[in-house]
């Protein structure tokens, strides 16, 4: 059974009032379909406004499609009850682009990473501390960092904290929504390679949203290229630079 199936997802935004413009009226995504198998990373590659975040939100259960469905582990996300969705939430995590707004600045790193553990697991404070220490080591940080607050971390370190929080419950799939775009090139590469290692070590699957061909090339097994809300081509990453669709060529080879 495939881990995630997105089947003909369509969402149209209706711009209104002061914000109505030719560009935004009728925008969104149309007839988006893809499959993610266990242990696989699918990259969604497209320029700004192509519809990448809309796709991510629909997969995460945050935006109901007008038509089409999202099946996660065989369960139809938008037709399941709250209890099923809570279980489903555990296996499907997310890392957003803006590492600072993804965390509560008043919490310590221990509280941030411990949040999903407290929501889903019952464990002693000592056990929680041990697991958080291990998670910090797994993402290349020092266990002593758990006493820090977000403002004492660099952007790259804080994004590693967000990754530690995302893997805390050993999810099946992580949606990575431009996870390295706000970091400098060297840190971007370190984190992408680290995500690749984690994927191989724990058999994780990723939906990797990006506008960056090189980043997609590092992490993805397959790439779906989106443009103006449509999926124009899906291609194995090994053949990415041999893409055939004119839009893919423009995006990949520019
Ligand atoms: N809430 C909204 N209301 C109206 N239009 C929207 C809304 N959200 C997105 N859009 C429009 O839908 C299209 C797709 O937006 P989306 O944010 O999914 O693109 P994106 O590829 O993620 O872009 P970026 O890389 O700039 O974040 C764009 O034309 C955008 O203006």
Based on the model shown, name its key terms:
single chain, 254 residues, alpha/beta, Rossmann fold, 4-stranded antiparallel beta sheet, 8 helices, 10 strands, globular, binds adenosine-5'-triphosphate, nucleotide-binding, P-loop_NTPase, ABC_transporter-like_CS, ABC_transp_ATP-bind
- In the CATH scheme, the class would be Alpha Beta
What is the CATH T-level topology? Rossmann fold
Compressed to H and E, one letter per element, the order equals EEEHEEHEHHHEHEHEEH
Main-sheet strand order equals: 6-7-8-3-9-10
Counting DSSP E segments of at least 2 residues, the number of strands comes to: 10
Name of the CATH homologous superfamily: P-loop containing nucleotide triphosphate hydrolases
Listed once per kind, the bound small molecules are: adenosine-5'-triphosphate
If you average the pLDDT, what whole number results? 92
> Which CATH-level-2 architecture?
3-Layer(aba) Sandwich
| β-strand amount | 15-25%
Characterize the biggest β-sheet: 6 strands, mixed
Q: Can you tell me the overall shape?
A: globular
GO molecular function: ATP binding; ATP hydrolysis activity
Organism: Paenibacillus nasutitermitis
Keywords: ATP-binding, Nucleotide-binding, Transport
Pfam families: ABC_tran (PF00005)
Concise overview:
It is built from eight helices and ten strands. Helix content is 35%, strand content 23%. One of its GO terms (molecular function) is ATP hydrolysis activity.
